[in-house]
């Protein structure tokens, strides 16, 4: 059912008064550099409610996924881009990829947690929006993470072009919908990219051939990729095998619960040779494709050694920009290929909504927290205390 647009009782904002020039205020949360800064990193403050764009809409944000994605700045170029569901401590490289100290960037920077995963309802439509635009006030929507997408950790945000909005079926909760625009979409695009290579290999090798895929990581990205791949390759019967290389214990358990796939634990306490041998045993030899969400130099180097000749490692673009130049010569020597994957398309996001709403793809576990508890949520993420995804709730969403 559509969410009612009544204001949240505890929040007492000024009413909009065109005559007096007073502006209505709303809450914004800024989640910045985590505890390595030695300072507070979560802030809550009042900001003016943005005006409704003439050709767009104003969205009341109900849920926002706790995802982090650094902006390109001199102080943050070493950071990686991953989606929540695994801790900051395990997802950011400890091999020199993380700067020793990070400056404080100001309350509204939100450099690590801009809030790209947004689900809410249309609160207002612009004056120039035609009646047959396909949207009405009260529609439940998510926001495609286009270039320049506004900070999602705020009670109201504006969209200048309605094409970036996607309606959410009444059967889907907004907390689930909030997981789709960033991490799930990126995972989907990565699986689609891998599918092209799978099709080529199976065609070249003949009818009884098998293609082996290794997915590295157990955070939100890896769990989405596992579910999407299991659905996407369901028609290939036994010709595609999937193995999860788990980066932590709880991820190992979660991966085993999702699908009947091979699971190997990549414990950082073991030597590289032992980890590679363990992976080879689980995969019954070298693999053809690695989808690596590990984000570190060590993880990528290990993934490359698990590949057969002609194999491909798919890496997130932000990580690829940093690591691929370092490994390109070695990849050429080993006759393997390193490919970067960017955010998926708007049409892919529409398809993803349909697949999740229909139950064909099951979302990973997630926990919803009040936005006021953001500082505790980030602390738990830093210490791997949250399984699956973390969602911040600004209003009662469903």
Automatic annotation (TrEMBL):
InterPro entries, per database record: ER (IPR020843), GroES-like_sf (IPR011032), NAD(P)-bd_dom_sf (IPR036291), Zn_alcohol_dh (IPR050129)
Swiss-Prot/TrEMBL keywords: Metal-binding, Oxidoreductase, Zinc
One Gene Ontology molecular-function label: oxidoreductase activity
Residues covered by the Enoyl reductase (ER) domain: 38-392
Coiled coil: none
SUPFAM superfamilies: GroES-like, NAD(P)-binding Rossmann-fold domains
Pfam families: ADH_zinc_N_2
Name used for this protein in its record: Quinone oxidoreductase isoform X1
